User: What shape does this take?
Amino acid sequence: MAVTTQSPPSKSGMVPKMTATVPLVEFVNVSKTYKEPLLKSRTIHAVQDVSFRIEPGEVFGLLGPNRAGKTTLVKMLLTLCNPTSGSGTRFGQPLSARSTLARVGYVHENHAFPRYLTAVALLEYYGALSLVTYDTLRERIPQLLRRVGLDDRSNEPIARFSKGMLQRLGIAQALINEPDLLVLDEPTEGLDLTGRHLLRDIVDEVRARKGSVLLVSHVLTEVEAICDRVGVVVNSRLVFTGSMATLLQSSSPSPRTLEVALEELYRRVQP
Assistant: This one.
């Protein structure tokens, strides 16, 4: 099925600090294959011929069923694995340019933080990895912990934190370097209503300063509320990219919902 494309609209109407010809993220005909661990003769196509771009100031949602290829795309974006073919860029540089990772923040749904560290120690560690100066960290860490509601637990071992507290700490960790690109992989997992509102505020702030956000989520209400454009991956292929309005208009029932639109799209592209 041919991929539907549409130029990204700007919600804020502000002029991007980078030109439209230099997206913060771009994948061009990217594919990733693996050999089956037990049957070496079998090839697994995790991602096939995927192309999309994320512009400055844009919130881009990556949707699709389980095992569609979304996690592999995120791993390639973060240089945790390399494309088998095709090419990708981050801030106009090849994905292999690891120095640009210092401008990226990443929130995962299941954090594997060292449980013996305190919240302050963890943020100092990740701040150093992101090349943030010590003086800046001394000022920024208390502000971030207060922002995510953990300032009263800042010197406790992470082992005592609940899942929701860990997710809040993960948000603080992702913001320690004031990233230009924020990658959110199921970020609302474990968060209460206040935490979800906090996350929306943070996304709005990143967008306002012309940073970009990549959101991977199965929580469709969150996707519909904050995304400018979406890409839909099914069976390792990108089958749709475009605005939320275009995706909703593609479904037949009325009133149209994102869930209905995705279900119809999945049916159309299934072999």
